[in-house]
Design goal:
With 291 residues, the protein is α+β, with helices and mostly antiparallel strands. It has helices at 21-40, 45-57, 102-108, 119-128, 139-149, 216-222, 224-233, 238-251; strands spanning 4-12, 78-84, 89-96, 116-117, 165-170, 176-182, 202-204, 208-214, 256-262, 267-271, 275-281, 286-288. A hairpin with a 5-residue loop joins strand 5 and strand 6 (176-182).
Length: 291
């Protein structure tokens, strides 16, 4: 079958949050082209999702990998997860530091008996894999933290907090996978855990796969990714599952977005905020959600 791919670089209220619509679209399309080329050449879904997340983590306009926001103590702690829809295997890392691609740790853990590691365990894994020490800090994120410190972190989150990245892929064999990676909320209490390394924010079965972005606590409260995939399992179309789940979320004034693909190749997305920064390839052409 024709592969399908959708990626996101977050959601928010200001379309200019990521440096402008044109620039964000160009960045997303460049990644779509690179990853979709791999899919058409035979790469499987889990490989494609990992590769997409690596490229998105390297794009400093998004809040994941390079360009991650700082927590209240001035440190960067990142989280990421992968899920293989065919095997229904979930793996992830929580609050890891000093790595370039948190998604690589999640990928390694797909074959580990211990599949979700938090800070100390993730750091030990980094050493075991001989991954080079990497500083994901950018000048822009440091300046934002220094400015916010003047008011003792009065804001609940950084401006770019909803820049969490994610990818969903359907490969030539009809297999699904999903990955999500984040720098967190920004200015948060040390030890806070985001949704991105939980099934609420990142979930896949052989029927559907969903990646979420936005305010992690809202995503956790809704169990959003699992809720959408479960509704597909129970007989809804992917679009019906998205529509019902987001109607409920709007009634509860949640703040997030999500992307997904089902095993038929249908692609869906929705958001409760102004924009979700997403792009896709439907097997025929590229498109995006940026208007």
């Amino acid at each position: 079958m024709l592969p399908k791919l959708i990626i996101h670089g977050g959601a928010g209220d200001n379309p200019d949050d990521k440096g402008g619509i044109a620039e964000t679209r160009a960045s997303l399309y460049q990644i779509i082209d690179a990853v979709y080329g791999k899919l058409t050449a035979g790469m499987d879904a889990i490989g494609a999702v990992t590769y997409a997340c690596q490229l998105l983590e390297d794009e400093p306009r998004f809040n994941a990998g390079t360009g991650s926001v700082l927590q209240s103590d001035g440190q960067i702690r990142m989280s990421a997860s992968l899920m293989n829809g065919e095997t229904q295997c979930f793996s992830g890392v929580i609050n890891v530091s000093r790595v370039q691609h948190p998604i690589d740790l999640a990928k390694y853990l797909q074959t580990s008996p211990d599949r979700v590691l938090s800070d100390l365990g993730a750091q030990e894994l980094t050493r075991e894999l001989n991954l080079p020490i990497y500083n994901p800090l950018t000048d822009q994120r440091l300046e934002e933290w220094l400015e916010e410190r003047k008011t003792n972190f009065r804001r609940k989150m950084a401006t770019v907090t909803r820049g969490t990245i994610g990818a969903v892929a359907l490969d030539q064999d009809g297999k699904l996978a999903v990955g999500t990676s984040t720098g967190g909320r920004g200015f948060e209490r040390i030890g806070r855990v985001s949704d991105s390394a939980t099934p609420a924010g990142n979930y896949a079965t052989e029927l559907a796969a969903v990646s979420c972005t936005g305010v992690g606590e809202d995503i956790l409260d809704e169990g959003l990714a699992v809720r959408i995939v479960t509704r597909v399992t129970d007989g809804m179309t992917l679009q019906e599952a998205f529509s019902k789940s987001f109607a409920e979320a709007r009634a509860r004034k949640r703040d997030f977005g999500a992307i997904g693909i089902d095993r038929s190749g249908a692609i869906a997305w929705d958001k409760t905020c102004a924009v979700i920064f997403a792009a896709y390839h439907n097997g025929i052409e590229r498109g995006d959600t940026l208007g």
